[in-house]
Predict the structure.
Amino acid sequence: MVENSEVSFQPETAEELAKRLELPFKDYSILNRALTHRSYLNEHPEALEDNERLEFLGDAILDFYVAAWLYNRFPEMSEGDLTRLRSALVRTEQLATFAMQLQLGLAMRLGKGEGEGGGRQRKALLCATFEALVGALYLDAGLETVKKFVEPLLQSAVDQILESHKDQDPKSMLQEWVQSQGLNAPRYTTIQASGPEHNKTFEVEVLVNGQVYGHGIGSSKQLAAKAAARAALKSLGLD
């Protein structure tokens, strides 16, 4: 609905978002910055900074906090399993899911073209906005507030990830299956790349013994390859 009426759409203000999510911001300007995509900055010179620096900070904070949370949450889990689980929790798709649960798309400040192109639903942008929000929350209210904000999201996600084995790398799982069948190693081929240089979308197919087993789409070749491997596993009844 949002993408079809982007011209008349008015995003939530920083104050409205903070109230809806019960976020204790004192400085709304930093929250505004967290919601500002560079496409908006290009069209609104009065906006002084986009959210990329906050995204960088939030990414580092999430890596640290998720690692610490998992360490305490699963005291018997091995280092390798903790690493895989952390990767599953901080990957683009999962952080975008958190952003969708919080309806951050309603508050994102996007340029006209980005908004009309479906930017409010684009996983890469949702992920970046979530990371920037975490960075802003840390600067404004501290790590304890970040903990209160993030922990309920992690708690609900980790059970689902473990239940569906999403912590396991699909490329590794496909490789193990191929080896067990005595087949040649999977080969990943990029068949299409589209979109502007700063926001490309890649389509990758995975072949085993010359036969296509799955297709995947992602904002990087690596993510698209993982999606292709996941599709192959699903077609084989292994996912």
Observations:
- The CA atoms of residues 169 and 237 lie 16 Å apart.
